[in-house]
Amino acid sequence: MSYGKYFNKGQKVFLKRIFEDDSQKALDTITGYAMRSQPMQLDLGLPYGSDAADSYPFEPGMKFEVMTDNKGMGLRLTASFVEKISGQDIRLQFEGNLEFISRRIFPRVDVTAWVGVKREQGNLSIMRTLWDEHVKKIKSGVSAAELTEFNKFLINLAGGGMRLPLEPPVEMADLVS
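The structure corresponding to this sequence follows.
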């Protein structure tokens, strides 16, 4: 079946990495925008700077769950990484069956919570390195409060994510704890 017809240029697409074994440490997601679609392939532009495709550790055959919206319905299917097209663009190969889903399984709720934001300069790979360092420190017993300053924020939570009211400018390497 031709899946490319469900992806229009500029359409927001969410990728969730699928791990083959139990090596998953955290939820690993990426947002991209459809640049070109073919019957069984999708070219995505990554909005994380001019070297976004080089910053993420893409490997041939790496599996992702692809999710997007089309005509009011959520779409989900599996795809594998094929190649980096440029510093910002990647190509995926569709696999498996296309599923139509309801993306909002849980209602959204506004809550006030303590959130730590660490401002950094750099790209996505710097943020990922810093994130891994913080996770190691927290696992070794270091309090998260020692890693960054925490403030109360009104945040919007849902089953699929959260929205934070961060002060601009927001840099790609900003880390939220």
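The longest helix spans residues 124-139.
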